[in-house]
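Weekly modeling sync, notes
Attendees: S.R. (lead), two postdocs, one rotation student

Agenda item 3: backlog of single-chain predictions. S.R. asked that every request posted to the team notebook include the full sequence so nobody has to chase files. The rotation student volunteered to paste the first one in as an example of the format we agreed on. Action items at the bottom.

Example entry:
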Amino acid sequence: MIEFGRFYAQIAQSPLAHWLEVLPGQLKVWRDEQAHGLLPSWERVLDKLPDQSGAAIELSDSVTINAHPRLIDGEKRRVENLLRSYHPWRKGPYRVFDFEIDTEWRSDWKWERLAEHISPLANRHVLDVGCGNGYHMWRMLGAGAKFVVGIDPSSLFLAQFEAIRHLAGAPQNIHLLPLGIEQLPALTAFNTVFSMGVLYHRRSPIDHIFQLKEQLVEGGELVLETLVVEGDEQTTLTPPERYAKMNNVWFLPSVAALKLWLEKCGFEQVRCVDVSVTSTEEQRSTEWMTNESLAQFLNPDDPSQTVEGHPAPKRAVMIARKPYTATPP
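Predicted structure, as returned to the notebook:
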């Protein structure tokens, strides 16, 4: 059974200690009322994974786990089959015991686009909002982060993360909690906050930006990645129904509008460091994610448009700083 007792103990003597006033109650509600009905079966899969307390993990250029003690081929195939039961795998890829989890997204491409632009993560407390199964959290850890927390309400993503963490030897400085950003109090405890692929799913993007700001220490850095459209400061696309077959897309701003939103919310040093059109090589169906993917979301006669006639997905990475209220030391 997935439990969070070690996380509670770790944050009890940290700047996150005040989170304990609400967090245990929230996670009890999640377990009792909000967890997916298949969670018990996903937890049973976790119990079948081999002990890998001595595993070696490579995080600088990838997320690669090497078994220790070494596993025979039959044991490796058993682990692979167990992990396949967590279909669909969205974010990755992961390389586990000589086989690759070929996920829908080449999330490593996104990391490569932003890694050289962000402030060094060494010794930082980092929050990843809407983290999925935690792929980018591992890359943050590999970049030197001291403590990484991800939040995502999906029970499946939590199970996938816990499986990877178990096979990686269960490091205790990386944790995923099944929560949404709206459930977090103003923690004011993280040096860097990431929100990637979340803003366009929020009914109130301005409220989301303020919620992200509340998690940062003064002088902390926000890394925000989201869908954008071409246009000036007043340009925002609001899809009347679906966007790329998604029914929960609310606002796609231009880069100029997004910069204005961040500045209006009190961020400074706001800059766009990357704009990239999403390709069908970066997001696609695989053996580990056999559902429809980007190729089916685009107009087959004009891939510059979605099937609904909107501009095809283009993503921007914004970086901004939470100002100091007084002169920094």
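Discussion: group reviewed the output briefly. The longest helix spans residues 155-167.
Action items: rotation student to repeat for the remaining queue; S.R. to check formatting next week.
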